[in-house]
Amino acid sequence: MIRVVHLITQLELGGAQENTLYTCEHLDRSRFEVTLVYGPGGILDPEAERIGDLERIEIPELIRFVRPGRDAAALLKLTSTLKTLARRHVDRGHDPRAFVVHTHSSKAGVLGRLAARLAGVPIVVHTIHGFGFYEGQAPLKYHSFLAAERAVAPFTHAYVGVSRANLAEAAALRLINSGHVVELIRSGFPLEPFRDVAPEARSTLRSELGLAPDTPILLTVANLKSQKDPLTLVEAFVVLRRSHPSAVLLYAGDGPMRESVERAITRHGLEGQFRLLGWRKDVPELMAASDVVVLASRFEGLPKTSVQALAARRPFVGTRVDGTPEVIREGKNGFLVEPRDPVSLARAMARALDEKPVDPDDQRRILDWDADRMVRAQEGLYVRLVRGGPAVSG
């Protein structure tokens, strides 16, 4: 029996968090015992609680923001937790080598891998869902976050990338070297809800939102945080209204930038046209009700929203960052522009509304994002690592 400990900062509504929960729920219980370690307070906490046979361990000190005192306390608790889990694993008669810690997100990725090292964990896996550092970030933050990633890279046995671009960047930054096991496993999700939305969902949801059948609707599904750059999206929508004055943008998500986005909406007189919906669980229905899916991210791993749009047969407009060009092909299923360029983003949104590019072949191409395929790939990786027992590099 292999014990797998998934470790993530907080269960916010996002791709990394949803992937982690799906994996925790669907790992084959005849071969794997599963523990989820996380910081409480995320919107998906009830989803974790719903998984009846999942061992959950909350670390209140594990938060998203950098707080040295709390981070040190979190490290101590994580180390103690992993030691306890490893000891219990052995006490139950299991092979001590068959113990895997799998970290996700930047904060948990750094603290979790350091804690695993201190606890003597034999196998450590980290999934790159994007990085906490990005071009244009304040230099001190950028170099500090990069230094932290480099510091824990020698404690990592295997890297999983959700995009080829992230793996290439990690190698270029000397986070990955020849001593690491490296695997591309796409950020999976259940495809069927997006492919098989009821035909009446479009008209029903538009009616609920008070929108006419012919209103041009754009949809964004994202956190309201700087990574997703919602303020650039507001500026782009201002430009878009010049050519499409009746267009409406629905923003499904919430986060720390809500107040600043609300102020921008009011400043530009966009009330009623740029709508903040808050967190929504009916994303497939929202996509069915919309005409174009749009995202203004400064950086990404590979945004799940882009693949969901293709599954829903909707064109995607986004930024040419990280793994996004691996799925979005110019003029075939959407348009990509450089980040922080509201004018170009507005032009791309207008083109997508007018041309509505959708490629039927995408239904075959997106099969790599099937959630169950993702879980099986991770299971295979865990088994190979336990059997092979690679040494930590560095």
Describe the structure.
The protein is an alpha/beta fold and 394 residues long. It has two domains: 206 residues, Rossmann fold (3-Layer(aba) Sandwich); 176 residues, Glycogen Phosphorylase B (Rossmann fold). 42% of the residues lie in helices and 17% in strands. It is built from 15 helices and 13 strands. Strand 6, helix 6 and strand 7 form a beta-alpha-beta unit. Helix 1 crosses helix 15 and helix 9 crosses helix 13. The longest helix has 24 residues. The two termini are 29 Å apart. The C terminus is likely disordered.
Any chance you could write out the topology, listing elements then pairs?
Layout: E1 2-10, H1 15-26, E2 32-39, H2 45-50, E3 55-58, H3 68-91, E4 99-104, H4 106-119, E5 123-128, H5 139-152, E6 158-161, H6 164-172, E7 181-184, H7 192-195, H8 201-208, E8 217-221, H9 230-243, E9 248-252, H10 258-267, E10 274-278, H11 283-289, E11 292-294, H12 304-311, E12 316-319, E13 334-337, H13 342-355, H14 362-365, H15 371-388
Parallel strand pairs: 1-2, 1-4, 2-3, 4-5, 5-6, 6-7, 8-9, 8-11, 9-10, 11-12, 12-13
Task: Give a concise summary.
By secondary structure, the protein is of the alpha/beta class. The chain has helices spanning 15-26, 45-50, 68-91, 106-119, 139-152, 164-172, 192-195, 201-208, 230-243, 258-267, 283-289, 304-311, 342-355, 362-365, 371-388, and strands at 2-10, 32-39, 55-58, 99-104, 123-128, 158-161, 181-184, 217-221, 248-252, 274-278, 292-294, 316-319, 334-337.
